[in-house]
Amino acid sequence: MLGKSVGAAVFLLAIGWAWGAEPPARWSGLREVNPPAEPSGEAVTAIVGATLIDGRGGEPLGDSVVVVRGARIVAVGPRASTPIPAGAERVEARGLHLLPGQFDTHFHSGETNGPTMTAALLDAGVTSFRDPGHPDTYGHLLETSEPRPRAFLTGKHLDQPPPAYPDNSILLQTADQTRATVDRLIDEGASAIKVYFRLPVDLIREAAERAHRRGVPVTAHLELVRADAAIRAGLDGIEHVTSLGTVLATPEDAETFERGVDAANEYRRDGRYWLWSRLELENNPRVQPLLDLMVERGTYLTPTLYTFEVREGDKDATPEKIAGFRKMVELVGVAYRAGVPILACSHGRPPEANWRDIELIVQAGVPPLEALRGATDYASRFFGAQDRLGTIEAGKLADLVLLGEDPTRDIGAVRSVRRVMLNGRWVR
Description:
Blueprint (H helix, E strand, L loop, with lengths): L43 E5 L2 E2 L11 E6 L2 E7 L10 E4 L4 E4 L1 E3 L10 H9 L2 E6 L7 H4 L7 E4 L3 E3 L9 E3 L3 H13 L5 E3 L5 H13 L4 E3 L6 H6 L4 E3 L5 H4 L2 H13 L3 H11 L9 H11 L2 E3 L2 H4 L10 H20 L13 H12 L4 H7 L2 H6 L17 E4 L13 E6 L2 E2 L2
Parallel strand pairs: 1-5, 2-6, 7-8, 8-9, 10-11, 12-13, 13-14, 14-15
Antiparallel strand pairs: 1-3, 3-4, 6-16, 16-17, 17-18
Helix pairs in contact: 3-4, 7-8, 8-11
């Protein structure tokens, strides 16, 4: 079992979004499998004096007041005009920066990244994550009294033989199997469906149609199916910037790469760098149509740049890998400027992976405030949790992070986590 059933949610028709506009909020009502404990009683906390970065993209608000009653935010505003209730616990935060709790959109919490590393997400300021796999190892999330970030699940990968991860895959051959599997995963608690790189486009379409009927998005790790075809089939998210490579490459290079992966799953590991090192992003007639399609369909990109980072002096670095990674970073900046929503994640060991990934997104050319939205507001929309999480507003749940330094001046300030509040309770 993935967890308690999340129930059906309302599916809103996908719409595109332009640079500077709101990304689409397509899902609602999707729930974590491990709702955090609420504070006892109606305790009131007032966080006073912090510079507020509310997650909505506006200019930070200096000398702010945020009032939390129980698990919810009840008041937000300037100190001069925001009353502090009598008897409130007053947290003096002058000189600090207050942000929404971050989302990790791609973190594997299974046996490799078990209780210790899942808890370490809180050290990074992460209060929610999506696990795109490892569905049989969630006991440490459901059976502990220790604070853990909110966990949103997908269940096993939908794939075909020979799977890259046999123990973490459901192998499908027919449309009926696909629809039944999607229904079962959602009934067991999945708040997203993940398709893997051998699932053909006709079954991606079946999975997407069924999931959308249930109000659940579909995301994918792609190598063999071209990303544009998968998006047209109904895909809502792309995991890994490398999933876009075969669409952007020359037809000859794309076919060489696909033949290699088709023959051996492991080919993709070094093959990605070979493919990307050969990409020409400027004056490439394949770039803009793909990005236009992603904007039109509101497709989210979780590039997982930390996973692929290779720089001069790194162990096992080669000129080909260094060049390939540089192209990956460059493409993320191009995608952002085209209007594609860029999300942050770890896909590695927290908290370092979380911090480094968002630094790389900024290095790609995403402004710090927008990169932070990719870890808060935009991510909450992709998780279907924007009604209660992702921004600091009255009525939202109190998942909050206090930083010691200013991330709008230097995104490295995300490393300066001082305190973390989860569901109205201080946990770090």
